[in-house]
Amino acid sequence: PELILPLRKQIPSQDWASLSVQLPLLDPQINHAEYGRTFKLANDRIRLAIRYLQNRGMKDIVIIGFGFGATTAINYLTTVNSSIKAMVGISMQPHQFLKPKYDLLGELSNIKIPLLDIYAAGDFSGVLKSVDDRRLAGSKGANHLYHQIKLKEAKRYFTGKDKELTQIIIEWLNQVIVE
Prior knowledge:
Blueprint (H helix, E strand, L loop, with lengths): L3 H7 L28 H17 L6 E5 L1 H12 L6 E5 L13 H5 L6 E8 L2 H5 L1 H9 L6 E10 L6 H15 L3
Parallel strand pairs: 1-2, 2-3, 3-4
């Protein structure tokens, strides 16, 4: 609610629509490592959401994912032939604990669409420790469309920085999505 809700409220005021996709949830008793097994179901949900938007005439579709949602979006983009125009990954980090193993950094190097990797100065340690690795992976393959931004003085959920975060995202989208 501290991050996604403000984004969903502010983005439409900048002439962008938003649609939230609920990713699969596991029972709280199940180990978090098992979230690696949810990618297929999540990909199906994302694909259906994209079809829904396309059936309503939307063409410039962008995925914005936060935390594991960003990892799921990367998995979708590298697994499915998609018409997604760009992606914003907020607080991305490798999740070494996932079963089956998932190589976020390897997958980042396969992304060929504009990708904004944005993180908070006070983010989780896994996000901060992987900053350089994500930048290198995202820039591989001559992907000059990869861009990384650190939001100074922001904590993990960007509390109190939601307007600044939204503005950065909108300005970037307006640069990379050209009609």
